[in-house]
C-alpha cells in the first residue's frame, strides 16, 4: 500500500472513531439533558428535598456541592501548588523524587471507594469529625491532590527555561522567580486543570457517601456565623451533595417522583459543570490575552 | 578534523584595571569535563568577546561568571570579583547576579508590560521610590536605545514587541539594575541584521559605563565591537588578546585557522 | 566598594525568600507523602487483620472462590476467597481500557492534528463535561439502556462483565482522551513540521513522529483511565450483577472488588471478620493499583530510554 | 503574594472554625438549663434515616435547644458506633443480637417501626402466588424455572440482597429456615432491586412494602396477601422491626426524642407516610430469635 492510500485510509479510520465517540458523547449528554431539563424550574432549585412526598427540590444539595467544592479546593490547592512547584523546580533526578512521584501516582490511582473508606475510618471515626463537610472536603483532597499537582507541575514545566534564567539573572530569588514570573505564565494551564478537577469533585459520590454523609439537615441561610450549628457555613454538619443525592434518590428513596428528581438533578449537575467550564475557560483566555497582547 | 595541541596557549597580560577574573575554572557536566583550567582577566569598561565553534564551552564559561550554572553543572576554581571569590559556596548568589547581569541568546521578556519588565526586579530589590523608579525606567530604556520606540506604550505587553525590541528590552532590564558587568550570550544570533546592528550600537554606547563580556558566533561582530577577544576550543582557552591582534596576527595556529575559516 | 563586598557575603532578602519558598514546598510534599503513608498504613493494618487476627490463610484468600465471611465451611475455616472478584475486576478494567484506547487516541489525534480549531474547540469542553458526570448517572443509564441491550443480543440476564465493560468504556473515554490530547499537544510543533517538510504524509507524520514522541504520555493517559475503571464502584455495581461467582463468560453476573465493598461495608460491624475481610478487599484494590502503577512506570521508563537512543 | 495571603488566611480561618466548633459542641452538651437541651447524633440504617430525619426536624421545632444530627452509614455502622459511645443513637434494621461483634446486653432496644417485606417478581413470570416451601426452593436454587410453578417457561433469576443487610437477614430467617441461599446476584438497595426486577424477565427478589409499585408483581405466599393488616397479626411472616439503639437507658434529650419517636405524632403519621407499619398497630411481637408471641 502506498503512502497516500494509507494516509487516506488512516484519516478515514480516525474520522470514523471520532464519529463514534462524538455520537456517544452527544447522545449521552442529550439523554441526560432531554430527560432532566424540562423538570428544572425555580421551585426545584430553591426548595428543600422531601423524603417521602413529591415536589422536593435540591437547594441544600446544590449549595452543599458548591460549598464542599470550594472547601476542598481551599485545602488542596495550596498543597498541590507547593508540591507542583517542588516537582517542577526543586526536585532533583534521584530516588527520593522517584518515591515522591510514585506516591503521588499511587494517590491518583486510589479507587474512590478506598478513599471514602479511609476517610471514614480516619476522619469520621478516629478524628471524630463525624459525617461532615470537613471530612468530605478532606477526602476530596485526596483525589484532587495528585491531579492538581500533576497539572500544576506540567503547566510550570511548560514555561520556557528562558523565563527562569531571566528572573535569576536579575538577582531575584528562585522563589520570587517562580511565584512572580513562572506561575503567572502557567496560570491558564493551571486553571484548565482546576476545572477538570472541579468537575470530578462535583460528580464524586462514592467517597462522599462515607465522609460527608447522606443527609442534608435543614440549615439557616441567614446565619453567616460558621461556628453555630444551624449556619449554612458550618463545616461540621453532614452534607449530602447533588451527586450523592442522585445516588440516594435512585437507590433508597421512597419519594414518588424519584425518577424526576434524579434526572433533573443530573441535568442540573451537568449545567453547573458547563457554567463552570465556560467561565473558567473565558477567564483563562482573558488572562492569557492580558499577558500577551497589547492593552 | 584537525587536532590541535591544547597546551599551546597564548594569554596576553592585561595592563588595565580588572573587573572580574577567573582562576583555573573547571566545569563538569556530570562526568563530562566541559571547561579546562580557564584563567582570564577581564578589563573594566571594555568589551570582551568570547568566540569559538559550537560546543567549545564559551557559553558555559560565560554562565559561570554570574553563577548561572549552579543547578546544572559542577564549577570549580576561583572567580574573583572585587577581591572576593564569588564561586565560593558562602557567597550570596543573588547579590552576585545583581552586580553581574546577563542577557540571553533568545529574548526572554516577562509576560508583563514593558514598564513592569524593567521595574519588577527593582521593586523586588526594595526600590520603591516612585521618582527613582521612573528615572531608572527612562534611562535604562534610553541606554538600550528603545525609549523612542516604546515611550508611548509602556503599559503594553512586552510580548507584543518585535524580537529585536524584546532583546533591547532585556538589555534595558539588566542595566536598570545598575550592574557592574554585563554578560551577553549571543544576544544577536536570533535577530535580523538591522536589529543586530542596533544592538551593537547599543553595546558600544554601554561600554562607556559597563564592563561587557559577550559570546558571539559572528566574527565580524567580535572584531567590530570588542576590545579584547578570547578564543575557545573544546573547553580550552587557546588565545586571549586585544581584538586587533587576534584578528590580524594570531599567535596560535588553531586561532588562525578558525578565523580564516579553515577550521576543524 | 567595601559595601558591595560585604553584601556579597551576607544573606539578603532573596536568600531568605528562597529558604521560605523551599520550606513551603518541602512541607507540601511532606504532607502528601504523609497522606499516602497514612492511607497505606490504615488500610494495610485493617486489611491484614483478616489474616493476623481471624486466622484466614492469605493463599486461600487469593485462590479460593467462596465468599461468605459470615459462615464457616465444613472444616471450620472462614470462607473468604476473593478470587472471583479479583478476576472480574481485572477483566472489566482491561477490556474497558482496550476498547477505549483506540477511540480515545483517535479522538485526541483528531483534536490536535486533524480538526480545524472549531472542531477541537467544540469537542474539548464536551469531553471535559463528561468527566464530571457522576458515576451514579452512568450506572443508571447503563441499567436502563446497556443491560437490556446486552440481554436482547446475547440472552441471559444482561448483567455481567460485558455490561460493566461498556459502562466503563464510556466512563474512561473522556479521561483517556483529554489526557492524550495533553500529551499530543506537548509534542513540539517543529517535529511535525520537520517531518511534513521531508515529504511524509500526514498519517506517516502522526504515526511515526507524533504518536511515538507522545507514547509515554499516551501510556500515562491509559493508566489513568484504567485506574478510574479499576476503582469505579457505583456504576459498575449496578450493571455487573454482584454475584460472587467465578466469571464463566462475559454475560454472566459477576462481582468486582469495589462493588462488593460498597454493597456490604455499611452492614458489617467494625472489628469483626466480615468487616475485616472487606478491608482486605480494599487492600487488594490498593495493592493492585500500586502494582499497576509500578509496572507501567517501568514500561514508561523503558520507552523513554529507547526514545533517547 | 496577595493571593497566597488570602489562601493562607482562609486556611487559618478554616482551622479556627474547626477548633471553635469543636469547643462549641462541648459547651453545648455541658450547659444545662431547665429546658432539656443537648446534641444528639443518630447514625446507621439508611432505610430508617429518612424517617428519623423528618421526625427530628419536627421535633426540633418545639425543642429548639436540642440539636439532632441524623446520618446514614448502614446498620452495622450504627450498632458499632453506638456501642463505642461515639454516637447517642444507633439506627438498625436488625436486632443487635444478630450482629457479630456487638454486645447486645449493653444496648437498649427501642423499636420505632415495623417493616413488611414481600417477594417480588418480574411481571413476565406469570406467577402471583407461591407456597412458603416453593419460595424457599427458589432461593436455595432447587426450583429454577417458572414453569414448575405454573408460570411461563422462563429461567428464574434470583436477585438476593447484600449479605449482612437487615432485609436479607429478615427474609432468610422467615423463609429459608437455616438453609443457605443459592449464590446469585446481590444488590444493596431497594431502589436498585426494584429497577432490576422490573426490567429483567424472570427475576425474583424481595422488597420492603414501601418500594413495591405497579412495575413489579408482589407475590402472595400461601394465598396471604402482603398487606399491613396481615403483618400486624403475623399472617404475613416476613417482617421486621426498625430499631433505635442506645447505650444504656437514654437520658435527657435522647430520652425525650425517643419518646417522641414512639408518640402518636410520629407513629400515626410519619411512619405511615414512609410506608412503614406503626408498632402500636402490631398485635404480635417478635424477639431476636424470630419467635413470635402475642402482645
Automatic annotation (TrEMBL), chain A:
Subcellular location(s) per record: Cell membrane
Keywords of this entry: Cell membrane, Membrane, Transmembrane, Transmembrane helix, Transport
Key word Transport present: yes
TM annotation in the entry: 12-34, 66-87, 99-123, 129-148, 181-202, 258-280
ABC transmembrane type-1 domain sequence ranges: 62-279
Top-level taxon of origin: Bacteria
Listed GO biological process terms: phosphate ion transmembrane transport
Pfam families, per database record: BPD_transp_1
One Gene Ontology molecular-function label: phosphate transmembrane transporter activity
Mode of membrane association: Multi-pass membrane protein
Keyword Transmembrane: yes
Main location per the UniProt record: membrane
A GO term from the CC aspect: plasma membrane
InterPro entries named among the record's database cross-references: MetI-like, MetI-like_sf, Phosphate_PstA
Database matches in NCBIfam families: 3a0107s02c (TIGR00974)
Family as reported in the entry's similarity comment: Belongs to the binding-protein-dependent transport system permease family. CysTW subfamily.
Name under which the protein is recorded: Phosphate transport system permease protein PstA
Naturally occurring in which organism (per UniProt): Companilactobacillus tucceti DSM 20183
From TrEMBL, chain B:
GO cellular component: membrane
Top-rank taxon: Bacteria
Gene3D superfamilies: P-loop containing nucleotide triphosphate hydrolases
PROSITE patterns cross-referenced by the UniProt entry: ABC_TRANSPORTER_1, ABC_TRANSPORTER_2
SUPFAM superfamilies: P-loop containing nucleoside triphosphate hydrolases (SSF52540)
Start and end residues of each ABC transporter domain: 20-259
Pfam family, one: ABC_tran
GO BP annotations, alphabetical order: phosphate ion transmembrane transport
Keyword field contains Repressor: no
Alphabetized GO MF terms: ATP binding; ATP hydrolysis activity; phosphate transmembrane transporter activity
Keywords linked to the UniProt accession: ATP-binding, Cell membrane, Membrane, Nucleotide-binding, Phosphate transport, Translocase, Transport
InterPro entries found in the cross-reference section: AAA+_ATPase (IPR003593), ABC_transporter-like_ATP-bd (IPR003439), ABC_transporter-like_CS (IPR017871), P-loop_NTPase (IPR027417), PstB-like (IPR005670)
CDD domains: ABC_PstB_phosphate_transporter
NCBIfam families, alphabetized: 3a0107s01c2 (TIGR00972)
The protein's name in its UniProt record: Phosphate ABC transporter ATPase
Species this protein is from: Companilactobacillus tucceti DSM 20183
TrEMBL record, chain C:
Assigned keywords, A-Z: Cell membrane, Membrane, Phosphate transport, Transmembrane, Transmembrane helix, Transport
InterPro entries: MetI-like, MetI-like_sf, Phosphate_PstC, Phosphate_Transport_Permease
Membrane topology, as annotated: Multi-pass membrane protein
Primary localization: membrane
SUPFAM superfamilies recorded: MetI-like (SSF161098)
Biological-process GO terms, alphabetical: phosphate ion transport
GO cellular component terms listed in the entry, alphabetical order: plasma membrane
Recorded GO MF terms: phosphate transmembrane transporter activity
Top-rank taxon, per record: Bacteria
Start and end residues of each ABC transmembrane type-1 domain: 86-296
Keyword rRNA processing: no
Locations listed in the record: Cell membrane
TM region(s), chain numbering: 20-44, 82-110, 122-147, 153-176, 209-230, 277-299
Gene3D superfamilies assigned to the protein according to its UniProt record, in alphabetical order: MetI-like
Annotated CDD domains: TM_PBP2
Family: Belongs to the binding-protein-dependent transport system permease family. CysTW subfamily.
Function statement: Part of the binding-protein-dependent transport system for phosphate; probably responsible for the translocation of the substrate across the membrane.
The protein's name: Phosphate transport system permease protein
Organism: Companilactobacillus tucceti DSM 20183
TrEMBL record, chain D:
GO CC list: plasma membrane
Role summary: Part of the ABC transporter complex PstSACB involved in phosphate import.
Keyword Transmembrane among UniProt keywords: no
Domain PBP: residue ranges: 31-264
GO biological process, one term: phosphate ion transport
Coiled coil: none
Keyword match Flavoprotein: no
Signal peptide: 1-20
NCBIfam families noted in UniProt: ptsS_2
Subcellular location: Cell membrane
Source organism per UniProt: Companilactobacillus tucceti DSM 20183
Stated family: Belongs to the PstS family.
Keywords: Cell membrane, Lipoprotein, Membrane, Palmitate, Phosphate transport, Signal, Transport
Pfam annotation, one family: PBP_like_2
Coarse class of the protein's main subcellular location: membrane
Assembly with partners or alone: The complex is composed of two ATP-binding proteins (PstB), two transmembrane proteins (PstC and PstA) and a solute-binding protein (PstS).
GO molecular function terms attached to this record: phosphate ion binding
Domain of life: Bacteria
Protein name: Phosphate-binding protein
Gene3D superfamilies: Periplasmic binding protein-like II
CDD domains, alphabetized: PBP2_phosphate_like_1
Taxonomic classification: Bacteria, Bacillati, Bacillota, Bacilli, Lactobacillales
Topology within the bilayer: Lipid-anchor
Amino acid at each position: 500500500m502506498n503512502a497516500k492510500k494509507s494516509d487516506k485510509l488512516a484519516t478515514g479510520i480516525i474520522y470514523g472513531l471520532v464519529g463514534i465517540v462524538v455520537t456517544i458523547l452527544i447522545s449521552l449528554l442529550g439523554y441526560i439533558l432531554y430527560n432532566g431539563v424540562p423538570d428544572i424550574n425555580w421551585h426545584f432549585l430553591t426548595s428543600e428535598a422531601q423524603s417521602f412526598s413529591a415536589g422536593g427540590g435540591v437547594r441544600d444539595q446544590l449549595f452543599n456541592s458548591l460549598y464542599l467544592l470550594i472547601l476542598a479546593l481551599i485545602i488542596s490547592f495550596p498543597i498541590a501548588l507547593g508540591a507542583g512547584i517542588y516537582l517542577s523546580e526543586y526536585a532533583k533526578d534521584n530516588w527520593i523524587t522517584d518515591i515522591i512521584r510514585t506516591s503521588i501516582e499511587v494517590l491518583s490511582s486510589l479507587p474512590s471507594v478506598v478513599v471514602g473508606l479511609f476517610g471514614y475510618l480516619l476522619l469520621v471515626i478516629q478524628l471524630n469529625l463525624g459525617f461532615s463537610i470537613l471530612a468530605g472536603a478532606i477526602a476530596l483532597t485526596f483525589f484532587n491532590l495528585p491531579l492538581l499537582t500533576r497539572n500544576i507541575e506540567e503547566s510550570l514545566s511548560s514555561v520556557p527555561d528562558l523565563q527562569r534564567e531571566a528572573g535569576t539573572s536579575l538577582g531575584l530569588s528562585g522563589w520570587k522567580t517562580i511565584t512572580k514570573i513562572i506561575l503567572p505564565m502557567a496560570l491558564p494551564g493551571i486553571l484548565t486543570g482546576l476545572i477538570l478537577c472541579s468537575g470530578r469533585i462535583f460528580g464524586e459520590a462514592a467517597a462522599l457517601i462515607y465522609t460527608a454523609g447522606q443527609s442534608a439537615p435543614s440549615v439557616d441561610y441567614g446565619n453567616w456565623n460558621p461556628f453555630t450549628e444551624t449556619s449554612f457555613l458550618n463545616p461540621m454538619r453532614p452534607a449530602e451533595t447533588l451527586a450523592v443525592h442522585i445516588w440516594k434518590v435512585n437507590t433508597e428513596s421512597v419519594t414518588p417522583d424519584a425518577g424526576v428528581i434524579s434526572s433533573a438533578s443530573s441535568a442540573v449537575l451537568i449545567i453547573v459543570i458547563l457554567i463552570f467550564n465556560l467561565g473558567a475557560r473565558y477567564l483563562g483566555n482573558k488572562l492569557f490575552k492580558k499577558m500577551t497582547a497589547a492593552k | 578534523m584537525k587536532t590541535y595541541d591544547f597546551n599551546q596557549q597564548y594569554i596576553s597580560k592585561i595592563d588595565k584595571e580588572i573587573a572580574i577574573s577567573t582562576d583555573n575554572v573547571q566545569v563538569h557536566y556530570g562526568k563530562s569535563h566541559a571547561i579546562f583550567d580557564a584563567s582570564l582577566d577581564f578589563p573594566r569598561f571594555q568589551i570582551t568577546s568570547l568566540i569559538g565553534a559550537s560546543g567549545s564551552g564559551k557559553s558555559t564559561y560565560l554562565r559561570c561568571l554570574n553563577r548561572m550554572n549552579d543547578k546544572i553543572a559542577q564549577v570549580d576554581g576561583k572567580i574573583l570579583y572585587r577581591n572576593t571569590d564569588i564561586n565560593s559556596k558562602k557567597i550570596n548568589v543573588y547579590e552576585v547576579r545583581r552586580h553581574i547581569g546577563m542577557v540571553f541568546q533568545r529574548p526572554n521578556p516577562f509576560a508583563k508590560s514593558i514598564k513592569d519588565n524593567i521595574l519588577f526586579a527593582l521593586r523586588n530589590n526594595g526600590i520603591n521610590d516612585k521618582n527613582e523608579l521612573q528615572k531608572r525606567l527612562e534611562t535604562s530604556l534610553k541606554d538600550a536605545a528603545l525609549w523612542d520606540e516604546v515611550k508611548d506604550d509602556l503599559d503594553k505587553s512586552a510580548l507584543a514587541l518585535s524580537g529585536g525590541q524584546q532583546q533591547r528590552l532585556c538589555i534595558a532590564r539588566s542595566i536598570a539594575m545598575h550592574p557592574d558587568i554585563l554578560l551577553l550570550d549571543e544576544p544577536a544570533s536570533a535577530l535580523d541584521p538591522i536589529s543586530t546592528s542596533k544592538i551593537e550600537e547599543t553595546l558600544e554606547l554601554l561600554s562607556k559605563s559597563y564592563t561587557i563580556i559577550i559570546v558571539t558566533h559572528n566574527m565580524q561582530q567580535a572584531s567590530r565591537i570588542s576590545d579584547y577577544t578570547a578564543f575557545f576550543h573544546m573547553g580550552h582557552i587557546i588565545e586571549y588578546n586585544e581584538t586587533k591582534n587576534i584578528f590580524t596576527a594570531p599567535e596560535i595556529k588553531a586561532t588562525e585557522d578558525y578565523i580564516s575559516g579553515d577550521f576543524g | 566598594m567595601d559595601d558591595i563586598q560585604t553584601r556579597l557575603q551576607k544573606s539578603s532578602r532573596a536568600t531568605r525568600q528562597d529558604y521560605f519558598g523551599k520550606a513551603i514546598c518541602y512541607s507540601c510534599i511532606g504532607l502528601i507523602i504523609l497522606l499516602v503513608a497514612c492511607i497505606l498504613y490504615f488500610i494495610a493494618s485493617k486489611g491484614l487483620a483478616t489474616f493476623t487476627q481471624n486466622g484466614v490463610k492469605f493463599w486461600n484468600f487469593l485462590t479460593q472462590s467462596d465468599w461468605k465471611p459470615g459462615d464457616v465451611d465444613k472444616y471450620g475455616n472462614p470462607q473468604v476467597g476473593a478470587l472471583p472478584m479479583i478476576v472480574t475486576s481485572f477483566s472489566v478494567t482491561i477490556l474497558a481500557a482496550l476498547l477505549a484506547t483506540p477511540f480515545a487516541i483517535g479522538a485526541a489525534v483528531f483534536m490536535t492534528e486533524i480538526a480545524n480549531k472549531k472542531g477541537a474547540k467544540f469537542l474539548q469542553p464536551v469531553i471535559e463535561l463528561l468527566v464530571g458526570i457522576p458515576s451514579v448517572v452512568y450506572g443508571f443509564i447503563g441499567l436502563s439502556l446497556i443491560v437490556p441491550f446486552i440481554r436482547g443480543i446475547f440472552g441471559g440476564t444482561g448483567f455481567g462483565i460485558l455490561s460493566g465493560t461498556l459502562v466503563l468504556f464510556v466512563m474512561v473515554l473522556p479521561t483517556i482522551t483529554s489526557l492524550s490530547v495533553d500529551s499530543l499537544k506537548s509534542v513540539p510543533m517543529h517535529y511535525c513540521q520537520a517531518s511534513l517538510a521531508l515529504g511524509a504524509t500526514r498519517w506517516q507524520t502522526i504515526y511515526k513522529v507524533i504518536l511515538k514522541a507522545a507514547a509515554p504520555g499516551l501510556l500515562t493517559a491509559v493508566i489513568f483511565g484504567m485506574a478510574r475503571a479499576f476503582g469505579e464502584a457505583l456504576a459498575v455495581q449496578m450493571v455487573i450483577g454482584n454475584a460472587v461467582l467465578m466469571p464463566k463468560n462475559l454475560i454472566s453476573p459477576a462481582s468486582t472488588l469495589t462493588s462488593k465493598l460498597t454493597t456490604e461495608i455499611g452492614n458489617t460491624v467494625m472489628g469483626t471478620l466480615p468487616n475485616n475481610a472487606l478491608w482486605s478487599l480494599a487492600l487488594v484494590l490498593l495493592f493492585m493499583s500500586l502494582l499497576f502503577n509500578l509496572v507501567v512506570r517501568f514500561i514508561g521508563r523503558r520507552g523513554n530510554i529507547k526514545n533517547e537512543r | 503574594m496577595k493571593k497566597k495571603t488570602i489562601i493562607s488566611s482562609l486556611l487559618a480561618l478554616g482551622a479556627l472554625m474547626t477548633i471553635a466548633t469543636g469547643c462549641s459542641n462541648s459547651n453545648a452538651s455541658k450547659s444545662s438549663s431547665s429546658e432539656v437541651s443537648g446534641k444528639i447524633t443518630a447514625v446507621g440504617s439508611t432505610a430508617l434515616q429518612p424517617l428519623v430525619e423528618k421526625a427530628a426536624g419536627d421535633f426540633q421545632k418545639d425543642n429548639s435547644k436540642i440539636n439532632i444530627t441524623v446520618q446514614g452509614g448502614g446498620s452495622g455502622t450504627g450498632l458499632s458506633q453506638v456501642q463505642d459511645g461515639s454516637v447517642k443513637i444507633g439506627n438498625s434494621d436488625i436486632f443487635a443480637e444478630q450482629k457479630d461483634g456487638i454486645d447486645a446486653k449493653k444496648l437498649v432496644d427501642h423499636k420505632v417501626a415495623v417493616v413488611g417485606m414481600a417477594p417480588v417478581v418480574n411481571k413476565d413470570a406469570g406467577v402471583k402466588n407461591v407456597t412458603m416451601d416453593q419460595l424457599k426452593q427458589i432461593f436455595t436454587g432447587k426450583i429454577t424455572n417458572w414453569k414448575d410453578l405454573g408460570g411461563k417457561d422462563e429461567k428464574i433469576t434470583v436477585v438476593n440482597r447484600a449479605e449482612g443487610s437487615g432485609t436479607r437477614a429478615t427474609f432468610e430467617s422467615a423463609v429459608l429456615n437455616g438453609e443457605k441461599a443459592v449464590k446469585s446476584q446481590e444488590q444493596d438497595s431497594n431502589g436498585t432491586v426494584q429497577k432490576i426486577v422490573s426490567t429483567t424477565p424472570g427475576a425474583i427478589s424481595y422488597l420492603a412494602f414501601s418500594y413495591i409499585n405497579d412495575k413489579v408483581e408482589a407475590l402472595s405466599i400461601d394465598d396471604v396477601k402482603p398487606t399491613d393488616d396481615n403483618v400486624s397479626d403475623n399472617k404475613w411472616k416476613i417482617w421486621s422491626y426498625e430499631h433505635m439503639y442506645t447505650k444504656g437507658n437514654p437520658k435527657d434529650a435522647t430520652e425525650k426524642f425517643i419518646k417522641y419517636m414512639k408518640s402518636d405524632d410520629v407513629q400515626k403519621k410519619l411512619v405511615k407516610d414512609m410506608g412503614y407499619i406503626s408498632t402500636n398497630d402490631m398485635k404480635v411481637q417478635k424477639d431476636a430469635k424470630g419467635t413470635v408471641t402475642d402482645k
